[in-house]
Each structure stands twice: as C-alpha cells, then as structure tokens.
C-alpha cells in the first residue's frame, strides 16, 4: 500500500496547489481573490481536491469493471460522515501542502475547514461505524460501495435554551455540498403500495404481478470515498426521492394545481429527514418506506451493474456481498427475492439460495425496543408482494429447519417464526435477517456471546457456525492523524510513518512510557489540546475552565443505559462534599458532556436539563473555588468530537454491563491517550485486555452480576437508605436549589432512580464508581504514572483500527480480494 506520508500519489507542491485553488476560485466559483468569502475559498479548495479524487475514482471504477471484481455493498440507513475536507487531504497526503498554499494566500486551512457543515446522516455509533468502515475498505483496496439515504436534513441541530435541549432542523446542503455528484444516468423507479395479481400462465406456471399504487423516482448522489494513499476511491451512493414524472395532469387541468403537486411533495418526504432515534425503532410508515426505498434503489443499481457483464445469475452470489447494518435494511431480502423471481424469472429455491449467499447481518444492540418489528397490516398496504414472499420464506423455514430439529414444537415455532402471531400480527425483521443471512455477527466479544446465548439461542443451536464476532474499530486517519496532528507528528517522529496503515506499529511507543523526555512531549501536547479546547468551551458556552484541571469527558447519545445520570449523581456527591468540607482534597476537575437525546425521549431530555442546571449552580459557586466545573457542549457531532477527544484525560464508559454492545468513542479516546473509567461492558473489556488493568480504571457489576442482581430482585431503595450521600444527593433534586423558585423540577431523575426501579442499576454501581474516581484522582496526581498510563493506552489500541475489523469481515464473512488500481 502506498503511504502518502512518504510519497503522495499526486505530487503537487504548494505553488501548484495555490495555483489550482485560485484557478477554481475564478473559474468554478466565479469570483476573485479580492471578493472571495471564506466559503468561496473553501469551495475552491474542495474543487482542487476533487480533481484528484475524480481521477482516482474513474481509474478505480474502470479497473473494477475490467477485472469484474467481487464487491461488498454496505447497506446502512445511516452514514455519520462528519466533515470531509481535512480527511480527504490527509488521505491524499497533501494536508500540509494545502495548508502552506493557503498560508501564501493569507488563509488558514483549519479556518476554511470550519466552513464545512457536518454530513450528519446518522444518529451515533452505528452510523459512524459505517463511515469508518468505508474509509477502511477504500484504504485496504477492497471493491466496496456504501448504499444509503440522501437525507435533505440530517440529525437535528441541538440548541440549549435555559438548560433544555431544543431541536432545530439540520441543513447541511443549504449552499450545496462540494463532495457529492448527482448521477441522473442511474435514476431508478421504485414501486409502492397497490395490490398483487396472481396470473396463471398457459404452462400452469403461477406468476405474481404487483400493480403498484405509486412510483417514486430514486436519484443517486455519489460521494467519493478516498482511501489513505488515494490508490482506491470507492463510492458512497445515497438515494434522494423525487416524484416520478407521475405528475397528475388531469388533476392539474381540472384546476387541482396544489393536488397535482401533492404527489411531488409526498414523494420528496421519503428522503427528507433522518429519524433521530438511537436504538429505539421509529415504527412509523414513512420509516419503513425510507428503508424499502433505499434498499430497492440499491438492489436495482447492483442488478444493473451485474447485468452489464452477465447474462444469467449463476455468478451473482459469487460477485455480490451485501452487509445489512442492523435490521434497518432487512427489507432488501424480500426485495431481492422479488426481483429475481418476478422480474428475472428465477425459480423460488434458486432465488432463495442466492439470497442466503449474498446477505449477512450485523446486530448492534440487545435492547428489545431496538429490534424492529412491523405490523402485518402495514406490509399489506405498503409492500403487499414482499409480505407474500416473507410468508413463503417463513413457511419454508418452519417446515425445513424448525420442524426438522424440533418436530411439533409449537413453542419454538412461535418464537422463531418471522411472524409474531400476537395481535396485531407483526413481522420480526431480526428473525428474517438471521434466517436468511449466511453470517450473523455482533460488534464486540461479550456482545456476540450474548447475541448467541440470550438473543438468538435457538437459532444458535440450529446454525452454530452462522454466528461470529467482529469487534468494532475506528479509522486512525480521522481519529488520530487528522484530529490530533501534534500527537500524530510525535508518533511519526518516534516510530515512523507506517502507523496510520498499521496501528500496531504504535506498540513501539511503550518503550518510551517511562521516559521523562517522551512523557513531557506527550503530555505537553495533551495540555496544548486542552488549552485549545478551553477556548472552544468559552466560545460555545461562556464557561471558563482551566487546562490544568482533569478533563473528564462523556460524549455519546443520551440514553439511560449509558448512565449519564450516574456521572451526574457523582458530581452532586462531590459538590456536596466540597460544600461540607471546602478543604476536601481533590484535583480540580472539569466534567464535560456532549450528548443528544431523541426528541421523544422524555427522561433523557430531563437528564440534559439537570446536567445544565446543576452545572450552572456549581460553576458559579465561589465556595468550591473552581475545583469543579460542569460543561454541557451543545450540538455534539463528529466535528466537535474531533476537538474534544484530543483534549480528554478521562474517558467515561460507564454503561450498565451487558447493555452497550461495543462503544466506539471508548476506542477513539484511548487512542488519544485518555484513561478509561469504565464497566466491563462491550469493547471496554477488550480495551482493558489490550492496555492492561493497570492502565485503566474498571468498576461496577459484571454482566453476570447484573443478571444475578436483577434475577434476585433489585431495589434501589436499599442503596438510597444505606448510602447517606446518595440519599442527600437525590433529595437535593426535590428542592429548588438548582432550579430557584421551581422546586422538584429535577424530580423525574430521582423518580427514575427510585420509584421507577432504576432499570440500569445506577445506585447499585454508585459506590464502586465513586471509589474508581478516587483512584483517578490519586493516579492523576502522580504525573509520571499518569503519563505512562496515557502513553501505554495510545500504544496498545492497535486492535481497534477499523482496518482490522474490515480484515475480520473479509476473512469470516465477505471473502473479498483486494484490487490493485494501477
Ligand atoms: N444501534 N445501535 N447500536 C450501537 C450505537 N448505539 O449506535 O452501535 C454501535 C456500533 O456498533 C455500538 O458501538 C454501540 O454499542 C451500539 O449501542
């Protein structure tokens, strides 16, 4: 693989780069150096970068076509891409060259990068994982396409009004987006609604003809995905919905102007907005239509590409792999069956055998509320032909698999059936995924074990070889090389340029873990990153914090199982200790939160409110002499994470054991030298194995202990009455101390932890968590020890490179060959 840090593929020097930027400013943007806004300079810089991307994209596509390569198609309802300018420059190995070119034009590249809106087409970990994966697929030189939805509005923009989350529409494409290309030549027409006619052919052959009630046009937008080194440039193809030329002239001609537009408006709503739920199913008809729309567009696109070089489907499964990123694209299964049987005329079993070889499924959560099930009546109306096919798959499965293994066992049948027979009857998308896919994987070792043992035990008995694990990873290009350039330069200076391509090369750093000189260099960079963040915090929240304090960071979606409420409870107890004893000896600490709550998730929004209200009182309380600060950063997103993560000292990974499937923020923070305080949950377990128990701070109940405590009956009141500090802290929420004049406004959190049973065992883990924070406090005060721990963390997380995850998928599931793009 070409290492662009050694020799960029495009050897542009700064003068040539500058020339190109000015050329595009004048000819592409139609303005001049004197008049140009920062937005225009940014777009001109992007146009210059696109020249190189498009060239490699064309070579990549031509080579893949010539070599008729097998490819993986990553179907995901979410791609949380963030910004692309810096990432694309680093992957071309031209970031510094571009920076110098712009300097000559009295411009700051970092400044221009701030002009770029995040491409926030995802909710959290699942969407960001998809983005890291397509970066790794291109970097490793595998033929791959990402397929998803071209949402006009991504994840809502979060504003904090008087401490409360307020959602505002995201408009990432307001002034156009330089990184996408519309491909009208590949438009698709997608049927919906209507009815199915059974046609009996003269050869007594039964054929199904679907008479759709509506046709939607699918317009593809391609985003070039350049790998590190720019050898391979794959595409991410996102589908926008538009009214097909199904304009109702009759209605129009009868003056029904608005109605004739109705179709258009309705069609466009399909890709209008991302559903902002993380781990809870939306259950809305539009959500099912969104899922079907992008899956059908993508499969028709794959079919069109395949038929360019094939006349029958014998090679289809050998050429095409489709990864289902959770159950959101499950509808792709009956859609491929429909296309193969109804449109290509294949036999049922032939089509079924192809589907089994083509599809594989990744499960990302055990939360029951996240496992999608759709009412049968909705399928009957929206996708009548697909419902028929699902019934056929179910009948085939129950007869040939379940009955064979568990003859006449209706209980097991009821459990494994794709159809949940309770009223109303529902289609279980996860069961359809497991029954069809040749491989099913979880996203961390403990999670994959629980997927087999707790979520799908009977399926595991039926097909033990079908279940495997692929622990998540993150791309070190964005999450180290691009977001923490000073640390990246130190690593390159110390171990050479190989590490962005082979993160295990950083193991070399461990040799310097006790070296005071290296420790100073490492921690000076951490301090400088913290000083940069101090300015961002001041600008975004008005809060003054000191870079000498411990930066303790919890950044992830707001969910009770992720236990931001446990972090808050500990802050309340610390605050009370300082009020009771101002000499209480702790190293100053800044608790930083970044988190969005699903708009309909009441308790989650209350927790955000409580963090802000408690923070307000603490931050302005002179009695504690600034020893404690609480900062809630509004509008947490990928580009903000890139500023927070390099400045983190402590990484909060405190979910109830057994609930966080993996986590990926934990990997990014450890990679940037933060020390994890965490439970033995998800990938925290594997991080602790890699860095060593001495270099992280583990606390709390294990997965088994959580199960046992819940089994024997857990009462949070026991902990409330047994621990005076817990009691005082929770009783504080009944008062108006944090909400002057509005007593009890924060009571819903106390209720969720007591009256409603504390589902996620926050009180049960409090004492252990508190003790863990005291360990953090003493460890941080031992500067040499802390520096060593930070260096060991950065040196030991090579495993969590998304390149390794992709290699695991290739070896266990996709069986792809790299394709060298000359
Ligand atoms: N949906 N979903 N699941 C998640 C995340 N919330 O997006 O997927 C992520 C990506 O696999 C996991 O890291 C995380 O633990 C899990 O909760």
UniProtKB/TrEMBL annotation:
GO molecular function: glycogen phosphorylase activity; pyridoxal phosphate binding
Positions bearing N6-(pyridoxal phosphate)lysine: 668
Record carries keyword Ion transport: no
Pfam family for this entry, one: Phosphorylase
Protein's name according to its UniProt entry: Alpha-1,4 glucan phosphorylase
Annotated Gene Ontology cellular component terms: cytoplasm
Biological process according to GO: glycogen catabolic process
Annotated InterPro entries: Glycg_phsphrylas, Glyco_trans_35, Pyridoxal_P_attach_site
UniProt superkingdom: Bacteria
Family (UniProt): Belongs to the glycogen phosphorylase family.
Cofactor(s) listed in the protein's UniProt record: pyridoxal 5'-phosphate
The keyword Glycosyltransferase appears for this protein: yes
Assigned EC number: 2.4.1.1
Recorded catalytic activity of this chain's protein: [(1->4)-alpha-D-glucosyl](n) + phosphate = [(1->4)-alpha-D-glucosyl](n-1) + alpha-D-glucose 1-phosphate
Gene3D superfamilies assigned: Glycogen Phosphorylase B (3.40.50.2000)
Function: Phosphorylase is an important allosteric enzyme in carbohydrate metabolism. Enzymes from different sources differ in their regulatory mechanisms and in their natural substrates. However, all known phosphorylases share catalytic and structural properties. Allosteric enzyme that catalyzes the rate-limiting step in glycogen catabolism, the phosphorolytic cleavage of glycogen to produce glucose-1-phosphate, and plays a central role in maintaining cellular and organismal glucose homeostasis.
Keyword set, alphabetical order: Carbohydrate metabolism, Glycosyltransferase, Pyridoxal phosphate, Transferase
UniProt-listed SUPFAM superfamilies: UDP-Glycosyltransferase/glycogen phosphorylase
Coiled-coil region list: none
